[in-house]
Amino acid sequence: MKRTLPFLLALLLAFAPAFAQEPPKREFRGAWLHIVGNQQIKNLSREQIQQWFTATLDALQAQGCNAVIFQVRPQADAFYVSELEPWTRFMTGEQGVAPDPLWDPLQFMIEQCHARGMELHAWLNPYRVTSNDKEQLHPDHLYFRKPEIFKRYGKQLYFDPGEPEAVAHTVNVIADIVTRYDVDAIHFDDYFYPYPEKFEEFHDDTSFARYGAAQGFEYWQKNDWRRNNVETLIHAVNDTIKAIKPWVRFGISPFGIHRNKKDDPEGSETNGLSNYDQLFADVPGWAEKGYIDYIVPQLYWRIGYPAADYEVLINWWNDKDYKGQLYIGQSISTFGEPDLDNPAISQTGRKMSLVRDLPNVDGNVWWPGWSLAPEAQPGYSGPRRGGRSDFKLQDSLRVVYQKYPALIPAYTDLDAVVPEPVASIRVSGHAIAWQPEKTDDVLQQPHFYVVYRFGAKEKVDLTESRHIVKITRQNKYVPSGKRNGKYKYVVTVVDRCWNESKPSKAIKW
Predict the structure, then answer these.
(1) C-alpha dihedral over 236, 239, 240, 246, to 10 degrees?
(2) Over the stretch 53-75, which tens digit does the pLDDT of each residue have?
(3) pLDDT tens digit string along 210-251?
(4) Structural domains of the chain sorted by starting position, each given as residue range(s) with its CATH number in brackets
């Protein structure tokens, strides 16, 4: 039986206590779309893959998402056309084998995201080369030309972060992407030095002996040297990005615990793996030095989890207020956990209230993003039965928390200049059309246009998200319904760093 809208709203009220909260006008709403481990793609045609991807983007757009973090380099390989690294095995099933007919998934996704008013962040893993000891590398892989800059650890192969040539290669890969593609950001996740293997040390004694002393580190400062190695890469990547395209951001999504209080008085009240101590990644330090533009700590735990309480950690990151923007990496599965005060409802409402009430939190990134669009996946056979309810997070996002489009928070540290408003706007047939002001300054050129709708006698107020009807790259908009003077529309310009212009003159419709 079809569910009516009132039924759905009643259900959402039960699961989302913060229902009445107006969605903010500016909020980062990202979704991670991963490729690593994906075994479907190799069995699909180009048309099937593209249909899957576009249907996923349609669903994410309908749920209010405004950014996609798309994995393009899972294992020192490429999910795009590259002359520096081989095609990923997740494309065709064998590393180095291109799709036939040849096409470029990264270029396709950039075009599709931008056509929907969404950003595309290219997601790369900097050091991981294999996931197990059975994977076959293509003969042209860098490993066979420079085996000395790689290390085996556990059952996996990694770049050695202490080798300058490993840093240089990764920087070159990113420079190639930023130069050739219209990406909005470069994104790293939590894989820096490997996650620790029990009873095994990462074997980088050779590179430490070769470079450590010359870089100013004593024999007892190996962990500091390792952190410096990763920071050297981060600094070089950011400098390279900004030298090519100053508007392209660089974001990091670390494991959710920076340090535990037992190891550092400034750490969080947690008891888990530490980015700083085990992965040798000083993410807050990078932010404070201006090497990264945003942080997405992966807070994948439930509220009340003893070792790593979501509420403890989101408050810790908020209170530290590091430079750059702070988004929260959200595990979708934890949103169905029972609320601590009222087990009859989920933790969705409390988690979303924390995100929106804490002053230094600027949005969310959803993991895994594919699960927000299950119907789009090849072979989808309907929802799984069972569980607490048939309530789905995607319904809550679409109807409640992300019901209106949102602008991404402006990156004013990169550019704080407001673009010029549209030069002209008029009715053209069945559409409202406009033209931008001409400028040679790339930072001030229109990246998107924002279309607002108001009642005919309503004051134009750009502060509320409910008035936004479209974020688009087109310089026209076709209103729904007949032109009868009940509404008026204005258009603003958004530049590369999400600064917004003043509104155009109003067009009655």
Answers:
(1) 160
(2) 999 999 999 999 999 999 999 99
(3) 999 999 999 999 999 999 999 999 999 999 999 999 999 999
(4) 5-401 (3.20.20.80), 424-508 (2.60.40.10)
